[in-house]
């Protein structure tokens, strides 16, 4: 599939995108498959392979952002990139192995779900460079880990939600001061977002309540909608989904109920412009581009690269129309206080 077709496909509506994600079937074997997607076919000898997790390119989140970073590396650095989308967990090792066995200069694994697979394949191919996103591997000299201080972005989003709830600053808010979170699987990348959101919300609305549930899925949009409906039935009128493609179902359910959501990883306001208040973001695309550039410049270094507010590696988007400027200003001040070290945020979810 050409890049032109991919970009067009990813611009389809969320309903088509979710069908594409949920409709993926099993690969049916453990041999190393050829890449299913080409991000480009030209380059200057620098070959980069990108392996998505089971959420696929249409997750409107970090898989998509990784692809954006790869595309930028093609355009700016002359890299030749290819993408393979994993349909099930057993695809991870063969997909990574394909790129490593074909002499790619850098193999990128998107997501903490590929931790064990990267450990295995990186050990088998010590001369190939690997990058894992949203996870930490420190015992391999050929692996760099990109991690994000998502708790900082979650904190700012939670503070905005708290200020809006406390002041009833948007239409159709009830008087219960309850917000919700729908997580995917409990894990550091998910829980850091949630922990930050809880703390930011409680700072601004100490008497408010944060509901937290986990779907144990990053792909099931219907399940995400079900969990959102359950939280709304308990009084939540702002919900923060941290569940990949599953979270798209949350946004759809919130939109149908004329309530509010907070986007995650990338700017998700286009999914429901009148319902997505703001998005908590992480610079997955930036991290991919930076690592590809380090390989090209022979400055690749294993270990952990951390991206936070100070590095513009996480943040929040401009809020939806109708959010008072006074709230935006308060949140901007909190951002600066975090950068200055005046606010310290835990990554532990409060039960």
Automatic annotation (TrEMBL):
Its main location: membrane. Residues 1-19 form the signal peptide. It is a lipid-anchor. Keywords: Cell membrane, Lipoprotein, Membrane, Signal. This is ABC transporter substrate-binding protein PnrA-like domain-containing protein. InterPro entries: BMP_lipoprotein (IPR050957), Peripla_BP_I (IPR028082), PnrA-like (IPR003760). GO terms for cellular component: plasma membrane. It comes from the Bacteria. Residues 49-346 form the ABC transporter substrate-binding protein PnrA-like domain. It is found in: Cell membrane. Pfam families: Bmp. Transmembrane segments: none annotated. Belongs to the BMP lipoprotein family. Gene3D superfamilies: 3.40.50.2300.
């Amino acid at each position: 599939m050409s890049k032109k077709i991919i970009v067009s496909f990813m611009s389809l509506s969320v309903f088509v995108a979710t069908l594409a994600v949920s409709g993926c079937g099993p690969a049916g074997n453990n041999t190393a498959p050829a890449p299913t997607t080409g991000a480009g076919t030209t380059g200057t000898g620098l070959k980069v392979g990108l392996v998505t997790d089971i959420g696929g390119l249409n997750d409107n989140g970090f898989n998509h952002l990784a692809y954006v970073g790869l595309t930028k590396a093609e355009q700016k650095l002359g890299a030749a990139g290819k993408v393979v989308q994993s349909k099930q967990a057993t695809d991870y090792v063969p997909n990574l192995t394909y790129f490593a066995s074909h002499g790619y200069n850098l193999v990128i694994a998107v997501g903490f779900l590929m931790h064990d697979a990267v450990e295995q394949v990186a050990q088998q191919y010590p001369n190939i460079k690997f990058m894992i996103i949203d996870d930490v591997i420190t015992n391999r000299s050929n692996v760099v880990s990109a991690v994000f201080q998502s708790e900082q972005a979650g904190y700012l989003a939670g503070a905005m939600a708290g200020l809006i709830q406390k002041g009833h600053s948007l239409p159709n808010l009830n008087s219960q001061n309850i917000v919700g979170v729908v997580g995917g699987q409990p894990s550091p990348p998910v829980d850091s977002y949630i922990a930050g959101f809880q703390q930011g919300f409680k700072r601004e609305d100490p008497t408010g309540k944060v509901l937290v549930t986990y779907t144990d899925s990053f792909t099931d949009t219907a399940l995400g909608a079900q969990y959102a409906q359950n939280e709304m039935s308990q009084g939540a009128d702002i919900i923060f989904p941290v569940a990949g493609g599953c979270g798209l179902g949350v946004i759809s359910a919130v939109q149908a109920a004329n309530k509010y959501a907070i986007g995650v990883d990338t700017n998700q306001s286009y999914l429901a412009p009148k319902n997505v208040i703001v998005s908590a973001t992480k610079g997955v695309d930036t991290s991919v581009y930076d690592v590809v550039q380090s390989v090209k410049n022979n400055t690749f270094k294993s270990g952990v690269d951390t991206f936070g507010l100070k590095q513009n590696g996480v943040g929040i988007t401009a809020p939806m129309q109708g959010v008072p400027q006074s709230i935006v200003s308060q949140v901007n001040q909190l951002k600066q206080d975090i950068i200055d070290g005046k606010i310290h945020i835990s990554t532990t979810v409060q039960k």
